[in-house]
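User: Design a sequence. Structure:
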């Protein structure tokens, strides 16, 4: 088993360590350390393999199908500079690489995928 949080609030509860692989993938400023206190707490609770990444130019809904709708209607927000197609591609590449690496044991796929995209920032491992 593995888990990924795509720019959401994390509720680990703080009662026990989470020893499964966990990916924190944040949009823009929200994904940076210190921006969301639940991510800081979750990071401390994660004792298994973990990665903390953020995507420059992404908004909260960039990791969903809504990104395309917001882009078409012009309501994505000024902070969203990453296009919906690129956001979808980056999300797919990072999540698939994380799952391939952790569940299929294909080697260091996530680090390779993160290095290939200049908009991806690595905050923790």
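Assistant: Done.
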């Amino acid at each position: 088993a593995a888990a990924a949080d795509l720019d959401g609030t994390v509720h680990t509860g703080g009662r026990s360590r989470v020893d499964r692989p966990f990916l924190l993938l944040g949009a823009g400023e929200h994904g940076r350390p210190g921006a969301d206190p639940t991510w800081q707490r979750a990071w401390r609770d994660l004792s298994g393999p973990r990665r903390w990444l953020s995507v420059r130019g992404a908004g909260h809904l960039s990791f969903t199908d809504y990104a395309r709708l917001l882009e078409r209607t012009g309501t994505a927000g000024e902070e969203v500079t990453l296009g919906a197609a690129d956001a979808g591609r980056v999300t797919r590449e990072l999540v698939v690489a994380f799952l391939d690496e952790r569940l299929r044991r294909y080697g260091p796929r996530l680090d390779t995928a993160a290095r290939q995209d200049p908009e991806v920032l690595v905050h923790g491992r």
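Residues 56 and 118 are 9 Å apart (CA to CA). DSSP finds four helices and four strands in the chain.
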